[in-house]
């Protein structure tokens, strides 16, 4: 299963707003691959107010 498919798994259970650092930490805990971690580190937004905002920033449907 690719990281893009697992994105909802990484977002599920998170309390928003959250920082990019919190998101990266969560993805690492869940075993995210290098490609997703690099994409998260490259996000222009430092803080996300909703899952929809995060998924949109990653180019994923919300």
Question: Care to describe what's here?
Answer:
The chain has helices at residues 3-11, 20-29, 34-41, 51-57, and strands at 18-19, 47-48. The mean pLDDT is 81. It contains four helices and two strands; from the N terminus they run H-E-H-H-E-H. It has 62 residues and is mainly alpha-helical. The chain is 55% helix and 6% strand. It has one domain. A two-stranded antiparallel sheet has the order 1-2. The longest helix is centred in the middle third of the chain and has 10 residues, at 20-29. 16% of the residues are buried.
Features:
62 residues; mainly alpha; two-stranded antiparallel sheet; 55% helix
Summarize the structure.
It is built from 4 helices and 2 strands, in the order αβααβα.
**Global morphology:** globular
Query: What is the CA-CA span between the terminal residues?
Result: 19 Å
Low-confidence stretches: none
Mean pLDDT: 81
What percentage of amino acids are in beta strands? 5-15%
Largest sheet, order of strands side by side?
A: 1-2
Helix-residue proportion: 40-55%
Largest sheet: 2 strands, antiparallel
Can you count the helices?
A: 4
Radius of gyration using CA atoms only: 10 Å
- Give the class from helix and strand content and strand pairing: mainly alpha
Following the backbone from N to C, one meets helices and strands in this order, namely HEHHEH
Number of domains: 1
Total strand segments: 2
